[in-house]
Amino acid sequence: MINTAILFPYILACLLFSIVPGPSVSVVIANSLARGTRAGMFTIVGTELSMLSMVLIVAVGLEAVMTLVAGAFEIIKLAGAAYLVWIGWKMLHSSGQLAVAPADRLPIGRYIWQGALVNWSNPKTLLFLGAFLPQFIDRSHPAFGQIMILGLIVMATATLTDSCYALAAGRAGRLLTAARVRVLNRVSGVILMAGGLWLALLKRA
């Protein structure tokens, strides 16, 4: 169902998406600093549960669009490529500040809910998934299954990178300096912009 030729560039793109700190990473770091790595890991459980629900929304929505209006798929992909370039531009000019607020000590279940709510309160995640996942769809196969597989890969890479942040914050928060985050943002931004442009030009070839 998934073209194996796109797996490596797709996984690389997933890593770029996941490694850049956003609101969900900030709350993972805050909880790890306040109560250790374990609290950060439970927060990640919440963020990934919310991401799974977003992947389901994208999968159902894209399948419905492709069924009703076949010609709309290329428009969705072009709009998605443009959005990826815009995200890359924003990352390129990011200050690198994590904006981590002190976290209260909470019961474990509350960390899971907090992670889920913070991720859902950031519409950029859903918008990004809606722009990103369709770029790797094979139109000769049903969209739903492909989106779910691609979405699970995004979730796996996000879990990996978020866990690294939780470990770093739980052991030594000073490792996560603004300067280091800024470098990650700029490198990822350039690559993401180049990828978005490549996808847009590829569709016109």
Care to give the gist of this entry?
By secondary structure, this protein is mainly alpha-helical.
Features of the shown structure:
mainly alpha, 8 helices, globular
Q: How is this structure best described in words?
A:
There is one protein chain. With 205 residues, the chain is an all-alpha fold. It has one domain (4-204). It contains 8 helices and no strands. It has helices at 7-19, 23-35, 37-68, 72-92, 108-120, 123-132, 143-171, 178-204. The chain is globular, with a radius of gyration of 17 Å. It starts with 6 loop residues before the first helix and ends with a helix. The model has no long low-confidence stretch (mean pLDDT 75).
Spell out the blueprint of helices and strands.
Layout: H1 7-19, H2 23-35, H3 37-68, H4 72-92, H5 108-120, H6 123-132, H7 143-171, H8 178-204
What summary fits the major beta sheet? Answer: none
Number of domains: 1
Compute the number of strand runs: 0
Termini gap: 24 Å
Number of alpha- plus pi-helical segments: 8
Cα gyration radius (Å): 17 Å
Shape: globular
How confident overall, as mean pLDDT? 75
